[in-house]
C-alpha cells in the first residue's frame, strides 16, 4: 500500500484525479445503495470488498499512467478479482452488474495484449448469463447490459490513456523547454566567441602599438589607447545585443573591420566584391565568417598578404578568404570557432572548406545559396516527392 501511494504521488495530480474519479463512485455508491436496501453489516462487507478490489486496480492504473512495466502476478490477481467480483454480484444483487467491467480493465492493464482482450471478450459475453442468473425477468436487456459493460470498459481505458498522454506531453514540453534554454546558451556562447575574438584581438594590437609608441610619440600612443577604449565600448554594446538575440552583422562593415584588423597586424589586404545586394540571413552568416577568419589569420598565422573575394553566381554566394601565412602543421585545427561556422553554414544548406591553397597559401571557402528560403522550400519539395 505504501508503494502504491508513492506511485500515485509520482503520477501527479491528473492521474490522482482520474483514479479518484473512478474509485470513489465504484467503492462508495454500491455500498450506499446496499445500506438503503439491506443491513449495515452487508453494506460494510461490500464496502470492504470493493475497497480491496480497488488496490490492484489503482496499482495497475498508476503503473500504466507512469509508463512502468506490468506488475508481477498479473494472472493470479485477475483470477482472484474475477472470483470476488462474480461472487459479490451474485450475492448482493443487480446493482453490481457493472462490476465485471473492473475485471476486464484489470486484464488489459495487467496481462499481455491478446490474453487481455480475450478476457475482455469473455467478460462481456459472461454478462448475459450473469444478468439472467440475477434476474430472469431482464430478458432481452441482458444483451444491452453486456454492450453497456463493454462501453464502460473502453471509457475507463480511454480516460487512463488520456491521462498518460497528457503526462507524457507535460514531460516532452519540459524537455523541449530545457533544450531551448540549452540551445540559446550555445548560441550566446558561440556568438560571443566569434564576436569577441576579433574585438579582443584588435584591442590587443592597439594596446601593443600604444606601448611601442609611448616613448617615441606619446600623443599617438594616447590616440591608440583611446581607440582601444572605443572598441571596448562597442564590444560591450554588441555583447548586450547577442544576449538579447538581436545581433546581426553587416557584410560591408565586417569587411572593413577585417581589412583594418589585418592591416593593423602588418598584412596587406585586397578585397574584391561582385555583390550588389545580399539576403539578410546570408549577409549575417558571411559577416560572422569574415570576422572569424580574419581573427584566426591574425592569431594563428604570420600572414603578410590576404585576399578576400565575395561574389554571387548562378544563385550561389561564394566567399574566399586567402592568406600566405600557412599555420604550423599546414592543416586547420577545428576549434569551437570553425565548428560554429560550419554548423551555421550547414543550416543554410551551404558548405565550408578550410585548408591549404597552393604551396604557401591557406584559404577559407564558403558556398551558400543566395536565397536560403527558396533552398529550404526546394529541399522540402524533393523530400516530399521522395
Q: What are the SSEs and their pairings?
A:
Elements lengths: L1 H10 L1 H25 L2 H26 L8 H19 L7 H11 L2 H22 L6 H73 L4 H26 L7 H14 L3 E7 L5 H21 L4 E9 L2 E8 L12 H12 L3 E6 L5 E8 L2 H14 L1
Helix pairs in contact: 1-3, 2-3, 2-7, 3-4, 3-5, 4-5, 5-6, 5-7, 6-7, 7-8, 7-10, 9-10, 10-11
Keywords, please?
2 domains; disordered C terminus; 5-stranded mixed sheet; Heat Shock Protein 90; 71% helix; alpha+beta; 386 residues; 10% strand
**Distance from first to last alpha carbon:** 55 Å
What is the SS-derived class? Answer: alpha+beta
| Topology as a string of helices (H) and strands (E) | HHHHHHHHHEHEEHEEH
Helix residue percentage = over 70%
Describe the global form: rod-shaped
**Contiguous helical run count:** 12
Strand order of the largest sheet: 1-2-3-5-4
Number of strands: 5
Low-confidence stretches: 376-386
Q: Report the sheet with the most strands, covering strand number, pairing sense and barrel closure.
A: 5 strands, mixed
Based on CA atoms alone, the radius of gyration comes out at 37 Å
Strand content: 5-15%
**Average pLDDT over all residues:** 76
Query: Total domains, how many?
Result: 2
Organism: Nonomuraea maritima
Keywords: Kinase, Membrane, Transferase, Transmembrane, Transmembrane helix, Two-component regulatory system
GO molecular function, one term: phosphorelay sensor kinase activity
GO cellular component, one term: membrane
